[in-house]
Input
Amino acid sequence: MKVLGLLVLFIALPASVAQSASFNCAKAKTPLEVKICREPALGKADEALAKVYQQRLRDFPIPTFIKDSQRAWLSMTQQCPQFEASNSGDTCLGLYRARIDALNHYGNAKIYTDYGKAFSHEQTTLLLYEKNGGLWLDWYGDWMPDAYRPKPFPDGYLAQDGGALTAKDGKYAIADHDDATVTVTDDKITFGGEYGMSLSARQGFLHGDYPRVK
Output
């Protein structure tokens, strides 16, 4: 996909394939690219994703974050045809729709980081926005390589998730993360509690203040 930075080699597809996609289907090579060109709904989702991705590159305060998170998402999504065939994971269309939804929400998100605007996927990016009538928080970063088979990003371990914020004693709690209390102001997000919010045994915790980027 041109806008997603894939290297697409020349290969001819049957004339019956769908042509709705963000790239030239005559050059589709990977299983995901072929699937996009064969399935009209997925092809339209690919086009929609390309449009909102380009829009976020233009208007997001930290465009490098958009590029980096798209690269991580695409690396994961390349496996969806195999997972879908074996009923062992999310469908490709479901992954595309979720990514489109996220990028649409990022257009109105407040951004908090521990690095200012000098983006690094080894540090933390927080995105706060309204979703389903309430506040939602996404977190991304704290990447580290696999010590047993170190490879460059996006291989390795990446904290990439999100959850609804629920009011709790004047602060907030995050679903499935009862170990932390979260204080939200216009200027910063603070993870309180003894250790903050646990990411994983490898990546540790989010703790303390994350100033807002404007």
